[in-house]
Amino acid sequence: MTGRLCLLAAVAATAVVQCLPDLPGHGMLAALVAAGAGLSLVAARHAHPVPGFPAGTAAGRALAPLLVAVLAFAVTVLRAQARLDDSLAPSNENKVSRVVLRVASLVRLDPDRRQFQADVLSSKPLGVPSRILVSWHSGGRSGPYGRSDAQPAEFPDLAPGQVWRMALTLKTPHGARNPHGFDYEGHVFAQGIRATGSVRGRPVYLRDEPWADLPVAAQRARHLVRRAMRPHLDGKRYGAVLLALAIGDQDSVGADDWRVFNQTGLTHLVSISGSHITMIAALGGLAVLWLWPRIRFRGRALAERVPAQVASAWTALALAWLYCLLAGWGVPARRTFIMLLVLACARAARVPLNTSRALCLVVFAVVALDPWALFASGFWLSFGAVYVLLASPGWLGRDLVVRRRAWRHRVWRYLLAAARLQLAITVGLTPLLALIFHQVSIASPVANAYAIPVIGAVVTPLSLLAAAAALAPGMDWLAGGLAWLGHGALALIMAPTTWLAGLGAASMDVPAAPWWLTLVAIAGLAVAVTPHGFPGRAAAWLLVVPALWWRPEKPHYGGWHLVALDVGQSSAIVVRTSDHVLVFDTGLRTGPDADAGERTVWPYMRAAGIERIDVLVVSHADIDHAGGVRSILSHARVGQSYSSFDLHAYLRREARLLGRPQDLPRLPDAMSVCAAGLSWHVDGVRFEFLWPASPAPGRRGGTPGRRSRRNDDACVLLVRGADHSALLTSDIGARQEAALVKRVAAGVDVVMAAHHGSGASSSAGFVRAARASHVIAQAGKWNRYGHPDPAVQKRWAKSGARFWRTDRHGALHVRSGPTGLYVESTRQAYPRYWQDQAFNSNK
């Protein structure tokens, strides 16, 4: 038991480091090392009983996990500090550097872009980190609705191992920070990426080094398999899914497909999971087990030299390792291989190893190899699924092995056992899924019941066989036939799966629960799946319920909460009263399947427990304010909408530009034009439009006109509660602000800086009249407009307001109530050590 506690203590200490806002300095590390040395001496003294100290053995066992935790903490801090030190020099920030680099990853193939990780071999000037993420854009860039030119983009055949000389504009990785949102900076930091670069000019090819090291060779093998398979998959609806099943290349899988997989709980089947790797290893091991006794060498059977079971085990392990490399060596693949390695070594050494010891060893090994594996959702879901599987026979109260009966009875029993296991995994992982994705699939048991056997036993083997045939000379006909069969089987099950995903009850949204409730739920889950007879096992499920039924705190009557989301150089604001929700603007559309409504606004609303929008305001038809409206309408029911243009016409035009003229989202129950004087009261809060002065029907169409005209007519909304007020200004300019001076003469507590803090807005007269306490500018870092303007920031600061900006502070959460007005910055409320340099560089 002491050994398992030591392993888990090391993992826990590593996790603590990943939650730190700052890394300890050298003095703190020295103190930790000294404390560890002292603990080791004490533990050594108490390792055996000594006269007069009968409890010595227990004391030594108690100190051992603490000693291991201290050492693991110190080692993890040193590794993290080394990665932090490998950073982009401030003098190179957002400037062009001349870099010689080696392609180190499988290249992402987008219509107008190639993206890959690269190892930097040399640079001018110095100060470029060793691992960067390179984006190479074509000359004809895709617009927000697809490619703007008819000619396909042309790129060289980039492959891992190639060495290029490039001119790159390098930047420190920076991503949006929203409550419960995706942490891009943490994601790239976990991969060792310390800078991003955009190609400038024409790169020069230098040489090819496909065998530079083992990771490069593995990525080159993945490239060769993909290149061989693509001719047989191009044009097939689910060809990208077959490629993902073969080599783990998920970049080409469409957003609509991911949405279906998530809502039906089939995401684990599309990823390279433990079942895929185990299947490859098992098939290879069984083949060797059958062949080994039948092969003779120099007159003796190979089984006489090495037992067939041993040869089979090591062959299976070698195949698993090779396939893990081909699949990209992700966290689930690492977990599976290390689990197989631990079991094989224990079997070869004749060491008894129960499931709990094996699982602790594997968790420790995965984290020791990569401390940042804890960032990956696959880590928690993978080990969670393994834990549930190992505990399931005891939880069900019966063994999966069945006595010899008629084959129909055996098949039926195995199917029932598989269904029970799937139900166990679905229920057991519910708290983790709710915590990570804030969504639980209700249709998962039904979809998995038919998808697991088809994808696991038919589609995946056919995909792998197609990959092998595509690489074999002269076997293109076989590769094409296997790909056709695999795609047909996949398309067959995707028809009912798509129908299930379209049902309103296919998934359930779960608001983000506090961390302490989440820990209680996980502890309850761990106890609930223990073997039959464990004390409190049946009642432990009750500990999961509070986290699933948690609802965030709502404002008091007369109060309001405002969240200015971090959506880059665009605008999206959510305002809540005690029983109503208003969304003001929906962010930017960046591509045919990418917009802020889908990626930021709706995920935040889901985590906040918002299911319906009572009022949706789209201030004007600029794509950075209206770009996400289609996604918002697709996800949430909207009662009333206001806009300065014809919203229905805008959506029809957008559908035509996207190539889906008949695919319109569900419209709001009522649609109106915003105009000064229009107001309403809910929950003790008054909402009033201050601009435009009067509706102008001739300029309200859905087709874009002059940007300045759209900005001039943008909706301006005043929110006045019982204690405080907020002004949402959209993109109006100084002339419109002058017309509003009298309306804000009573003062406004919170002001959204007009036009992202543009120098053409926030005029001196308006600033003096508003007398704001807090001003928020929604802007993107390194935006080409220079927003927010430094003069505007000084003007607001001189008036006594605190100036907030989402590119520096992340999403801003403003709470108004009888106890006061509070503004919380996401970056300051949830700091992490890897974000310190990026945050400090913005100050």
Query: What summary fits the major beta sheet?
Result: 8 strands, mixed
Task: Kindly report the CATH topology of the largest domain.
Answer: Metallo-beta-lactamase, Chain A
Determine the structural class based on helices, strands and strand pairing: alpha+beta
Overall shape = globular
Structure description:
With 843 residues, this protein is α+β, with helices and mostly antiparallel strands. The chain has five domains: 2-85, no CATH class; 90-144 and 155-212, OB fold (Dihydrolipoamide Acetyltransferase, E2P) (Beta Barrel), CATH 2.40.50.140; 239-402 and 429-509, no CATH class; 515-548, no CATH class; 560-842, Ribonuclease Z/Hydroxyacylglutathione hydrolase-like (Metallo-beta-lactamase, Chain A, 4-Layer Sandwich). The chain is 47% helix and 18% strand. It contains 31 helices and 29 strands. The protein has an eight-stranded mixed β-sheet with strand order 20-19-18-15-14-13-28-29. β19 (637-643), α24 (647-657) and β20 form a beta-alpha-beta unit. α5 runs antiparallel to α6, α7 (255-264) packs across α18 and α15 (407-428) crosses α17. The radius of gyration is 30 Å and the shape is globular. The two termini are 49 Å apart.
